[in-house]
DNA sequence: CGTGAATTCATACTTTTGGCCGATAGTATT
DNA sequence: AATACTATCGGCCAAAAGTATGAATTCACG
């Protein structure tokens, strides 16, 4: 997975840095050995602190956006589901009867039946419960 | 790509760190003062790096284990929904007809009708779509 | 302006579902 | 043993849902 990969890469990079520092240290003699070691330790310490802080900051966000539904417009277009049909589908999902849907949309039950029939064709279903299941699969409704 | 981005960012951070160190080193010849300066800089740098890494780690977590459903047993007990009734409810959710459910469970359609009727009473519904909606609200089904 | 898609409605018919009754059998509980 | 709950089944009727077909209207687009 990319996550593990990035962690490993990070570790490798870290090791490389330390190696370079060591190399530079021995190459151009100079400063005391413990300084870089100290720096390394401090770096590690503060990185973990940063990770902790970062997690703390984002923890609230972690819980929130977990259930955010977005309608798959592409799928809708692909199936050729119209606005009106989608309205009807949504109301079916809310458990309304044809009569109730008709009243809500100010049309006759005949119209609703036509819409549902067309929906069933497009969703390859023969019952409303089946249509709901399919629509959920296709990410058309939540 | 995110991976490449992280490597680049890390590299930039390293370059900045080294640059600052060098700068400080040549500018002030004082060892004791610059040590603390180094440490401060390193600490700040690595904390922010850590925050970034931490955010990265949690951000992935947000997307991946999004939402797995767990049935609300308490609610089921409260409503007095039996095992068999729950089976039927699940199959209704999958879009099956009474006949199909009956065949799947090796019982008659009469039995399924009895179960559904009882379910409707317990879920305060009068249609299967409504029952599904209610059951979802109550976290009984996904 | 014509064409096609979308929306609307109706009628007739079939299938599915739901409401209401009663009944039997097994299991668990008291 | 009596009681309560679960699961099973059947019949009857009515309501809801679904199928098929045809048709009128509106509306966007070329």
Please provide a written account of the structure:
2 copies of one chain form a homodimer. With 142 residues, chain A is mainly alpha-helical. Chain A contains 7 helices and no strands. Chain A has helices spanning 2-27, 33-63, 73-79, 83-93, 98-105, 109-123, 128-137. In chain A, helix 4 (83-93) crosses helix 6 (109-123), helix 5 crosses helix 6 (109-123) and helix 6 (109-123) crosses helix 7. Residues 1-13, 23-27 and 60-64 of chain A have low confidence and may be disordered. At the A-B interface, helix 1, helix 2 and helix 7 of A face helix 1, helix 2 and helix 7 of B. The structure holds a DNA duplex (30 and 30 nucleotides).
Q: Give the overall form of chain A.
A: elongated
Largest two-chain interface: A-B, 47 and 46 residues
Number of DSSP-assigned strands of chain A: 0
Rg of chain A to the nearest angstrom? 30 Å
Summarize the structure.
Two copies of one chain form a homodimer. By secondary structure, chain A is mostly helical.
């Amino acid at each position: 997975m990319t996550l593990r990969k990035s962690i490993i890469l990070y570790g490798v990079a870290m090791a490389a840095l330390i190696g370079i520092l060591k190399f530079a240290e021995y190459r151009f003699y100079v400063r005391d050995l413990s300084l870089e070691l100290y720096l390394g330790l401090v770096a590690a310490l503060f990185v973990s602190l940063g990770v902790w802080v970062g997690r703390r900051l984002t923890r609230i966000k972690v819980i929130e956006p977990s259930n955010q539904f977005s309608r798959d417009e592409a799928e809708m277009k692909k199936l050729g589901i119209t606005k009106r049909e989608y309205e009807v589908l949504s109301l079916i999902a809310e458990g309304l009867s044809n009569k109730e849907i008709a009243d809500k949309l100010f049309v006759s039950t005949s119209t609703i039946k036509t819409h549902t029939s067309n929906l069933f064709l497009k969703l390859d279903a023969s019952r409303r419960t089946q249509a709901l299941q399919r629509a959920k699969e296709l990410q058309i409704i939540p």
